[in-house]
Amino acid sequence: MSHFDFDFFVIGGGSGGVRAARMAAQRGVRVALAEALGTDGLGGTCVNVGCIPKKLYSYAAHYAEAFEESHGYGWEGAAPTLNWGTLKAHRAKEIARLNGVYANLLRGSGVTVLNGFAQLQDAHTVRLATLNADGSPGHQTLTAEHILIATGGTPHVPHFQGREHVITSNEVFDLEPFPQRLLVVGGGYIACEFASIFNGLGAQVTQLYRGEQVLRGFDDEVRHFLASEMRKHGVDLRLNAGVVSIHREANGLHVLLEDGNRLVVDAALYATGRVPNVQGLGLEAVGVAQGAQGAIVVDEHYRTNVPSIHALGDVTARVQLTPVALGEAMKLVDHLFGPAAGKPPRGMSYDLIPTAVFTHPNVGTVGLTEAEARERFGHVTVFRSEFRALKHTLSGSQERTLMKLVVDPATDRVVGLHMVGAEAGEIVQGFAVAMKAGATKAVFDSTIGIHPTAAEEFVTMREPVA
Predict the structure, then answer these.
(1) 3-class secondary structure per residue, the chain
(2) 355-459 topology per CATH
(3) Among 3.20.20.80, 1.20.120.530, 2.60.40.3930, 3.50.50.60, what is the CATH number of 6-51+86-154+275-337?
(4) Range 365-369 average pLDDT
(5) Average pLDDT for residues 379-399, to the nearest whole number?
(6) Catalytic entry in 3, 159, 379, 451
(7) Would you state the pLDDT for residue 1?
(8) Is 3 in the active site?
(9) pTM of the model
(10) Top-level CATH class of 157-272?
(11) Which of 83, 108, 159, 184 has its CA 20 to 30 A from that of 303?
């Protein structure tokens, strides 16, 4: 019998932590999971203030556009108006339901769920700050053979005059009142998504980005195409632009820009990156090695330089995606406690990770950008198609779709696949499976398309671009 209180102690109730705790408990391991007091609930950023509510609001934002487009299909009459309070209430109800689902899954698996802020005391000891029954602060000390840190990330806002007036993606879902004039600062996927969402919901959106083009790290053609489409949809996207200061006056927030221009807005959303959530964990005292912005340094088995302490997900700043954290969690549990009966140990590959950006229109991508492929292979063959989707031949919308394949001619393998258009994430997921299996352009060409769909374009592109 182990002399520790638990075999496995998980700090953080987000996607990675919950998955690791559940999988370990199902193997008969004694598991505890601590989630900090005052947090929104189990599920972490993704469930509470990330993927799920953001996608729900993205759905909501499409309706105004759909009502307008319906006239081209014979539908008549005025479109409904948005009740912002109703949307917020329905979202909150769904998130609360998911919090309960996570709690039931954990307890049903035999995990001990603890409500408190956990801090490392040594390589095997955690101090948990809690509340006593009378509401006074208390604490307890617990020990574990293995400790996992899965505390995720948190929004980063740079220091500037008026910083106290801005909000982050954590607060944007419950803004009151609805911001008729919204400033979005940033050029990553979170900034672009919220610019699209609030533009679709009816706000006048200005997006500022200091760089030369949004979505740095994505395929260059995708970046330029999306920027053009976002502007077409109504977002006032300004590149090579930044904020000097923000101050509040009676008629709103007055924003001084680096070019000397001024804006007056109702709210300013800063989506300028995320940093690992490591504040107060006691990493320095225990000697856990950290990298840039505090990211926890781990090896291929998610072990830190302190052998009993592990970390995964956004707190390691490797690949900040929920499905990646889930994959890492399953690999870690198999490594520490053995795979499930009759199953081989799981691996985790960081190649060909598909991702989507829920802008209007969506972006879906998997594999290498054209620039990355040229750097790796020297010569590549590119297939490209741009068109107006069948739906919009009657809708009246001028939205266009972009599809692109990047092929290594030496092996004929498709090494990059990119799309900007409706339901891009849904379409790209299936092609990611094919690429993971090593599909060549010849395989794509021999696959029969589903007609009429946008997706069939990926298997009907025959002529490479110059």
Answers:
(1) CCCCCEEEEEECCEHHHHHHHHHHHCCCCCEEEEECCCCCCCEHHHHHHCHHHHHHHHHHHHHHHHHHHHHHHCCCCCCCCCCHHHHHHHHHHHHHHHHHHHHHHHHHHCCEEEECEEEEEECCEEEEEEECCCCCEEEEEEEEEEEEECCCEEECCCCCECHHHCECCCCHHHCCCCCCEEEEECCCHHHHHHHHHHHHHCCEEEEEECCCCCCCCCCHHHHHHHHHHHHHHCCEEEECCCEEEEEEECCEEEEEECCCCEEEECEEEECCCEEECCCCCCHHHHCCCECHHHCECCCCCCECCCCCEEECHHHHCCCCCHHHHHHHHHHHHHHHHCCCCCCCCCCCCCCCCCEEECCCCCEEEEECCHHHHHHHHCCCEEEEEEECCCCHHHHCCCCCEEEEEEEECCCCEEEEEEEECCCHHHHHHHHHHHHHCCCEHHHHHHCCCCCCCCHHHHHCCCCCCC
(2) Enolase-like; domain 1 (3.30.390)
(3) 3.50.50.60
(4) 98
(5) 97
(6) 451
(7) 47
(8) no
(9) 0.96
(10) alpha beta
(11) 108
